[in-house]
Amino acid sequence: MMEHNTNRIMSLINQLLDIRRIDQGQMKIKCRETDLISFIDDIYEIFSYQAIKRNINFTFNHTSEKLFVWIDVKNFDKIIINLLSNAFKYTPDGGEIEIVLTAKEELKTNSPLRKYAEICVRDTGKGLDKKEMEKVFERFYQSPSDPNRSLGFGIGLNLAKMLVELHHGTIKADNRSDKQGSCFTIQIPLGNDFLSAEEREVEVVETSPIHNIPMEEWVVDAESAASNKKSKYRILLVDDDRALCEYLQDKLGDIYRITTCHNGQEALQVAMSQTFDLVISDIVMPIMDGFELLHRIKRTPQIGYLPVILLTSQTELENRIKGYKEKADAFLSKPFNIDELMMLCANLIENRILIKSRYNILEKDIKSINIKANDELFLERLIKVINENLSNVDFTVENLADEVGISRVQLHRKLKDLIGVSTSEFIRNLRLQQATILLKDNKVNISQIAYAVGFSNPILFSSTFKKTYGCTPREYRERNM
What we know:
- This protein is an alpha/beta fold.
- It folds into 3 domains: 14-199, Heat Shock Protein 90 (2-Layer Sandwich); 215-365, Rossmann fold, CATH 3.40.50; 374-479, Homeodomain-like (Arc Repressor Mutant, subunit A).
- It is built from 17 helices and 12 strands.
- It has helices at residues 2-23, 36-53, 73-90, 156-166, 222-226, 242-252, 264-273, 290-299, 317-325, 338-365, 374-388, 397-404, 408-419, 423-441, 446-452, 458-469, 473-479; strands at residues 32-35, 57-62, 68-71, 96-105, 115-123, 170-175, 182-189, 234-238, 257-261, 278-282, 308-312, 330-333.
- The strands form 3 sheets. The chain has a 5-stranded mixed sheet with strand order 2-4-5-7-6.
- Strand 6 (170-175) and strand 7 form a beta hairpin.
- Helix 2 (36-53) runs parallel beside helix 3 and helix 7 (264-273) packs parallel to helix 8.
- The longest helix has 28 residues, at 338-365.
- The two termini are 43 Å apart.
């Protein structure tokens, strides 16, 4: 409920900001030629889950395979989404909602709408009061007889009208003639003769990839994307909203290999057992939320390198700071633009490729020498001492500090600076890493492993192991047999 209310408030704020920008002449559309059928179909897919859930017969009908129009893709979707949201709000369960797209011609006019695309959104709700039909596009207007007044703010249709007019089009509301329900009709001119130079998006020139990275390594290579050839890069997608997962699977699946999980615990288990290049996770999820998943990933040596994008409606500064403290690589607020997400994915994966590429070049050019940095020697000393005392249940942080000759506080600070974990976490992680090796060997039972790596009893070992790796030792062994 809290996330739902947050979404509504953020939607209201964003729409009010758009209206204010239009009122002040600050919103300038940037149109490019777009296949309107494909564009609407993407939005249709988003609403399909709600239609299935409510047993609404939801259809998108069009007379041609493609219909190209010049629209601002960053703003035109707001028009369609507002009309569909309105239709779903007023259509009862078991009703009908239809999108109809056609190309038409009006020979009697010399306006931009001589040739136009017509979008009709029809529903089987209660219809519109004829006296109030002209008022539905007025800002903040809500019908006094509307039982759903508390579900809206009276600005969505006003914003839709303003955006349609920015596109040199028209929008009107009417009641259906064939049955009960309303029909909203949009007309958008075909072609681009009516657009000013400022209203046309400047063509984006393809830039060459960064040097030192082979072309086949690039995720967003145009030729690969055009042929729908998947790259070798893998993304772990985590969200309890199955409809959103299906949508992202469809959009990202043409380029990346996608694995989907529906809670953080499941995702952590999968991340530990498979290899990925990026994690995209929601924050609000059952069992284990996105913050906890992020914390586990970044604190687990085997997968701590993974970039993590958090998808959230929680846009408060406090939540972002919390995420960044846990080393989140990026935040993206819902509802997000799919192009922005795809570019973010590409950039994060490419950054890892670039780092790896530069490291490989340095590795080839620099002769190996035996001198080691003081920090590396210090860590090797710590690991050696812990390994020598691995099965010692009574081995403590104080014992480790004494062995390396510094105070407990100094040891804690140094480990925090070097690898970002406390001394107790460092000891525990080494114990558990050794346990994973023994589990894979499958030569001794789990109780023996627990005592061998310094746990006082198998129950404590199992709970600690599950908290770190997201699965029990037995499950880990079965998965790696």
